[in-house]
Amino acid sequence: MTEVLPAAGLAHSELVMADLLMELREIADRLVERLAVADMLDGFLLAAGAVQIAEDHLHRDSSLPRRAAGYLRGRGVAKIGTRALDTMATTADRARQLGPARRAAARWAGEAATVRDALARGLLDAGLSGARQRELRDRAARLRAGLAGLPAGLVGEILRLPSCFRSFDQQPADMVRLAGAYADAQPDRDRPTMVVGVRTSGSYLGPLVAAALRTAGFGRVSVSTMRPGVPPTREQRRALRALRRAGGAVVVIDDPPGSGSALRAVAEQVRACGPDRAAITLLVPLFGPRPPASLAAYRTLTLPSERWAVHDLFAPAAVADVLTPMLGVRVVEVHRIPAPGPELGRGHLRAVFRVDTADGRSRLVEARGAGIGYLGRHALAVARAVARHTPATYGFANGLVFREWRPDARSLEAVRPAQVPAIIEYLTDRAAAMPAIDRAQALTGRQPAWEVASRLLGRGFGRFGLPLRSGLIDPAVRGLCAVAHPSVVDGATAAADWVSSGGTLYKPDPDVRAFANTDRVCYDPVYDVAGIAPGASDPALAAALRSAWPCDDERFLLYELAHLEDRLGSDPRARCAASRAVRRYLVARFPGAPPPTGGALCALDVDGVLESDALGFPIATPTAVAALRALQHHGHRPVPVTGRSLGEVRDRCTSYGLAGGVAEYGAVAYDHTRGRVVELVEPSDGEVLETLRRRLRETPGVQVDEDFRYCVRAYRVGGRPRGLPAELVDGVLAGLGPERERVRVVAGQRQTDIVAAGTDKGTGLAALARMLGPAPDSPAEIVLAVGDTESDLPMLGTARHAYAPGNAAEAIRGAGVAVLSRQYAAGFADAVARLLGHRPGRCPRCRGAAPEPSARLLLALLDAQRGGRPGLPTAAVRLAAELARARTRPIPAAA
């Protein structure tokens, strides 16, 4: 079937949808419509989706208690508590399986599966008889009528999209090939066989494999589906035990695995019900050359990506056949050209062709996978909506979308402020043309954008984060992300997602990310604006983005964090960007006083005092920023004195309007007002550090942070950053010989720092005081210093008043420094209160404007770590109070 995009608009005979997410009631309506026009493929996709929704409803477990039990078990909580949660979940599951509502849902699911399986057979056998089609139309109509007897929660449940047929280029023919491989390996056609699909893709692939096996002569084939981690139902356990007694076999199918954990988990769930490992075969389509090692214990039959059926569609003859009706003129010749060629990996294939037509014209055409049926035809709906901003779209056929190819197109390396209006124009047109219902609000547990942000903020509550999610954190973040005018978003608006051709920006793939396998569903155009450059390092770009699409700051920040969340564990730049995003928000909430020309210095350590990294990246809590601002309003000059890089110190000076700072453990002092940098490392020490930097770069498994120029910071590679093993550091240092004494090691949990022995935070602060003093021979007074680790002792010794928060290291306590009772930012605020004579924000001079309800709610979330672990109960109570306040005075949904 070929869909053409005519000048007047899209053809109406095919199912073309802008919003691919549907409730069960919508799927039932569309199933009736598609079967009325004998649309076998979309009929199958819709029926499979209906069964997936019903089976997820029937098979759902009490996931929150189980997740909470697993979370707490991993943190050493007493077994009695975790067992109680497991028991609660199991009891709820069993009770749910006994009620009449479940029996009604099971009957409905069985009827829907009958329609699905018949359509799968017809799809592979190239059609159904007229009588069979009429029977299926009647069954579909009864299914729609039967919704009235189902629970409202099931009827309103939202479809999960299958990655196999939406985000990847699998075709039904691939299941025929895998089933054929199994048939070749299993000659006994009478052996009972259960095909188990791994939901969600398995809800579609499983019935197709079963249909192909029946066509191959297997007479006793059944279909079931399971979701990894969700216990099999009572009916599934019975069926698998009966299969074992009959000497049957199990075939497990899923979309191409990454780690293989989902396939393995379902195989283990099958084994737990009776069948032994020898009776289980995994059918594994592949992106890479071989199955993941995690599947080695099972018999596997593979279909490498180069053998997928989609490659046949890229043959020049096949391209010519579909382009002739699309272009409206006969295609006489098609040549595949080398740029860019098909892209291999976990995504869609693409290729470029030179197409010559009978009218003498020659065109460059790109063919790209888009998904099959209505899942891929979504590309046509998007093309119509944003036609001014994309290459010409010629049409869609057999899972491929065909577009104009522009050879001069170049991807952007970075978005410039001057390019923001063009991007905003695209987003404005898109939002206006594709209004939608905000289904993301109902997708709890499926990682919509708001839930990604909620999960991230939940880290601030430590071990209480997961238990607090459903009752406090999720409702707060979901409410902050409410939108008055939802629409189908793009989902991929960063620099790399745009190309420039002839001096004009355009969007080459506007239909790929919104409903991709990466989830993060959102219907708020602000999500796309925030995704252009989340946590932008260029202040002008950040300002351009915030002014381009007016919205509340809270929503914008939450979406910035959602875009960055998946890279926080592996990309230092993402952590810096997230830190900047939060800092910008807090600076706007707590405006500073005009920078004083003089004033005493207040030296502040950053990590553990001004900032916390409980969220996976460093942020100053609202309490810390309020205390910082109080110092400024009272004429003092706060300065960071830290082990962080000069670039990070410069960032904080820019954000907070600080006079300067000391970076890299005293190795460099920075006067922000004059832009002056003073290096304090002796040249000979610098040579030793450079030698170490070079040796660590050459050490396998070690990453050197190139942002640190005056000391050496290194991590272990792989996963989240970790400090280097002591034996590795000792071995590298031993190679220095006598020069070893010229450096010292500052070991941290997430990094290892090596600094010149002749510098420390005290010498760095003294140098900064001279730079910021009223005269070269008159250094600025240091009235306050707050630090929490041994490396802060030289700094603390220079100040008139020295304090440490309650989380201070033993070395601080043993040195006689005044240690305050409260920890982290709360302790810092107490130190400021002792200096000022009142708590920050409690006098007319440093009291700011009262925040709006939405700001109060987000500030409570961001402030969870202000007192460390001892302060978490208070933080939870504060969040509950702010959420209750917001519910009595609802936060209006923003435009």
Estimate the global geometry from the Cα principal axes. Answer: elongated
Please tell me the CATH architecture of the largest domain by its name. Answer: Alpha-Beta Complex
Mean model confidence by pLDDT: 91
Structural class: alpha/beta
What is the β-strand count?
28
GO molecular function, one term: phosphatase activity
InterPro entries: HAD-like_sf, HAD_sf, PRTase-like
Explain this structure to me?
This protein has 895 residues and is of the alpha/beta class. It has five domains: 3-10 and 309-407, Phosphorylase Kinase, domain 1, CATH 3.30.200; 21-160, no CATH class; 411-565 and 870-888, Aminoglycoside 3'-phosphotransferase, Chain: A, domain 2 (Alpha-Beta Complex), CATH 3.90.1200; 592-671 and 766-847, HAD superfamily/HAD-like (Rossmann fold); 683-756. The protein is elongated and about 100 Å long. One of its GO terms (cellular component) is cytosol. One of its GO terms (molecular function) is phosphatase activity.
